[in-house]
Give the backbone structure.
Amino acid sequence: MKLLFAAAMPLVAAACAPLAPLDTSSGLVTVADTASPVSTLQAGPAVTYRSRAVQEPGNWIDLNNAQGPGVE
């Protein structure tokens, strides 16, 4: 019980402490510049689709050897 009390006391003290004032510097408070050019184009797809035919699995040993380091 003493361990629980010792662990909970700092949490209670921190919860009751007053909050620090917010930073209100001019860079954070000013309104965004509405005169700047804004693109209205929609973004293209993030992933392209490539159609592939279903086929039998190949030889994995040859594939791994071809992709491994030190391949000539």
Observations:
- The helical segments are 2-16, 26-29, 60-67.
- The chain has one domain: 1-66.
- The two ends are 68 Å apart (CA to CA).
- The chain has a mean pLDDT of 79.
